Fold this protein.
Amino acid sequence: MSIWEYANPKKFLTTSERLLPPLWGLSAVLMLGGLIWGFFFTPDDYRQGATVKIIYLHVPAALMAINAWFMMLVASLIWVIRRHHVSALAARAAAPVGIVMTLIALVTGAIWGQPMWGTWWAWDPRLTSFLVLFLFYLGYIALWEAIDNPDTAADLTAILCLVGSVFAVLSRYAVNFWNQGLHQGASLSLDKEENVADVFAYPLYACMAGFAVFFVALVFYRTGTEIRARRMAALIARERMAADA
Amino acid sequence: MSALLLRDLRLALRAGGGFGLGLAFFLIVTVMVPFSVGPTPETLAVIAPGVLWLGALLACLLSLDRVLALDWEDGSLDLLATAPVPLEAVVSIKALAHWLTTGLPLVLAAPLLGVLLNLPAPGYLWITLSLLIGTPALSVIGTFGAALTVGLKRGGLLLSLLVMPLYVPVLIFGAEVARRGASHLPLEAPLLMLAGLTLGTIALMPFASAAVLRVNLR
């Protein structure tokens, strides 16, 4: 038994299909449970009031936005090194999920920032690097869409993902540096994790776990779709060749 | 390899448009800025280093599709790939040729355009120096983008979308050097970071560029 068995699309499909219903169920329970617990059964923060509850969407989405890119990086590496098609397709399947998570984090952040900071947007290092991450996702997805040959597309996007990861990390540090250089006061960069009390933390953990399981389920599901799309393309091509012959 | 460099330079010079166009674009962007933000000298002095950096970056970006596209179309890229020179060296030479025909003229033009934007006196040295250090990185990263999109019919817009995020660190440190230089602030840290970025990209990016070029050529 080795993990490389799942490089076989058939094996991957049967296993992921068996895993999907419990994964959907688990993510629904965790997300709904965490959100309902967080929204209705936690006290209001003494300073932020009820606004603090957007944390249950914001933090898990931000977490998954970064981890989705990391998952794409690992999948791209596996594709470059071991040439397993399922891996490339999984990276492709994860990208739109990742970009939506990034968007959720940015939008909920803006909605949270408006009452707390008095502005929808500030060029704070964290906010800025998320915007840059969003641009990286856009470029990655656009490159997948632009190339017809699936193997060429997989190779080029994989290398873009590797190079992009390095530059994303560089941008993160550059942006940190840039903002400190601009204004000294760190009044905007609240370190959210540090101040969270247990009452808020437990539903937050549930939401984070829920988002993570939801992400895994979505990637399994979308990878299955990609595999089937690839098979259909192969069938159509075969039929056309038979018709020509 | 020097023959390849000479060939590229000669082509860029004689075929025309190559670096003239980049310079003209830089000029026009700089001229458009006062129209959009107003002609107040104080405002212009504040934004001048950033505008010059952004203008140079965009001019660089605009000329990227010429780096490999022509050689791809007439098949000389295939010949270069089979030539007894590593492909990494070929893309490095291509990037060097792009820098000599686009980056260097931009560096030299930047102080002149600084006059138009009321750049403070100490800024002239630092805008030139930061662009001199930073533009090679723009060329090397841009060559990677050009190699990624060389096989595509309408790669131009996609090229910008792919390359722009990769330019973020260089732009941040480069513009920071110019801005601090213009207002007499200590600038060793961004200057060293910029130089490190340029050296790092020159050392490593050719491998990535050659890798994607091999995929596109197969």
